[in-house]
Amino acid sequence: MSNRKFFYKGRQDPRQNHVKFGYENRGTHKAGSKKYPLSLVVTSEERKREVEALVAEAELYAVIEVDSSEGAEESIVELTTLLNKQGTVTLDKVPARNDPCSCGSGKKYKKCCSQ
Question: CA of 3: how far to CAs of 7, 8, 9, 97, in Å?
Answer without folding.
Answer: 13, 16, 19, 68
